[in-house]
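Recap from last week: sequence in, structure out.
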Amino acid sequence: MIHLQITTPARWLRTCARILTLCVLITQAGCSIAYIGKQETCTTRAYIRTPLNRYLNARFDLNAPVRMGIIPFATQANISAWGRELHGLGIQMASTMKNEFLRTGEVPIVELMNRQDWPAKKEEFHAGNFTSIEMARNAGYDLVLTGLLENITEMNELTLQTKVIEVASGMTVWSGKTTIETSKHEYERSRPIVWFKRRRADKLDIYKLSDELVMCAIDEILLDEEVPE
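Predicted structure tokens:
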């Protein structure tokens, strides 16, 4: 005798509900793992590191209104004039740097200088920064901060070179290179197609990454530690 098991509509609905719940849990677990795995790492190489706070205390009178001008950072041509309100990435990063310096209070007066570009600006960063120093001197600044965003070759990595220079003497107080790398792009590039969404290399938020890069750089500039001889 053959026994036939007939599945009732209610039992079928309960089975479908269990399967659907299991799929949702698996999907949520996968997203959580991807989110936890996404991280940014910063590395900095300092060529000249004079502790800024100690330098200012030794060079200027106590409570002197020291002024620092920040020049919009030099960048590659194709990102020099696009983005938020058509501002280039270089001016956006310099503005973030200014805001963070003001937040720390390490330098009493910090302002963004309005000269964005001039011929051979990128080349001058490695050849004396004479135009930057002259502009800062004419504007009455004591310090000038310049930056150079290296050409972007990988969408998951940005590198910023920065210098802090005393205007009167031309002495470089800080010079270094900071690199930030995120694993988000690698995850986006390697993951399989899910829920009919294709992999996209342009999903990285370059402004978010550049803001974090500036935070890393300013932490190193303000670090109270000298480079060993």
